[in-house]
Design goal:
By secondary structure, this protein is an all-alpha fold. It has a single domain, classed as Four Helix Bundle (Hemerythrin (Met), subunit A). Helices cover 79% and strands 3% of the residues. It contains seven helices and two strands. A hairpin with a 2-residue loop joins strand 1 and strand 2. Helix 4 runs antiparallel to helix 5 and helix 4 packs antiparallel against helix 7. The chain starts with a helix and ends with a helix.
């Protein structure tokens, strides 16, 4: 992975790009991805554009922390900003998909609450002294991979699959899967935090 990222980091260094700037550009890419998803129903070209912005968001989100460490500018504020931007990015992307017609709004609400709760519980554990919890079956990196793959499939095969009120394109089903597994991840993180807190009290 370093073979791929190191040249990019060196380019950003030569251009005097800061880690915070990368985080903000990543947020912009998530906004554009959400907008593209919203307008992409029935248009494979716009859906491909959404995929491009999604890829850029994932790439830049992975590089901002590495750039901060490489330049010695890693800070608590930078970490805070990165997590805030990630949550806004989640909202823009997920809402863009289900409001774009790939999934019913009620199920879309289930998805976004699961995504935000799983992320919140991971950082809330740190706030109560357990340490940040990244474990669980559906983290942010997992969500991004699932969405990228599902978007690729939907570009090639945009037809809805299912019966009656449960007929969605592959992208819609993938989003629903993310929602269900995100809620399960939230439960996993609650269990992990509870175990750590109770073990700490016993000591």
């Amino acid at each position: 992975m370093a073979v791929l990222t190191e040249p990019l980091l060196n380019v950003f260094l030569s251009l005097r790009v800061s880690a915070d700037m990368l985080s903000i550009v990543a947020l912009g890419c998530s906004v554009l991805a959400g907008v593209a998803y919203f307008f992409s129903a029935g248009n494979s070209l716009v859906l491909a554009l959404a995929l491009l912005f999604l890829l850029l968001n994932g790439l830049l989100d992975g590089l901002d922390g590495a750039l901060a460490r490489k330049t010695g500018t890693a800070s608590k504020y930078g970490d805070f900003l990165d997590h805030v931007i990630d949550r806004y990015a989640d909202v823009f992307i997920v809402c863009g998909i289900f409001l774009g017609g790939y999934l019913r709004a009620d199920l879309g609400t289930l998805v976004i609450t699961g995504v935000l709760l799983a992320s919140y519980l991971g950082t809330q554990a740190q706030a109560v002294g357990v340490g940040r919890i990244y474990g669980g079956i559906m983290g942010r990196a997992d969500r991004m991979v699932v969405l990228m793959l599902a978007t690729c499939v939907t570009i090639v095969y945009p037809a809805a699959i299912g019966i009656d009120d449960f007929r969605f394109p592959v992208l819609g089903w993938a989003l629903l899967l993310i929602g269900v597994l995100s809620h399960f991840t939230a439960l996993q993180r609650i269990r992990s935090a509870r175990r750590s807190l109770l073990d700490g009290e016993k000591k």
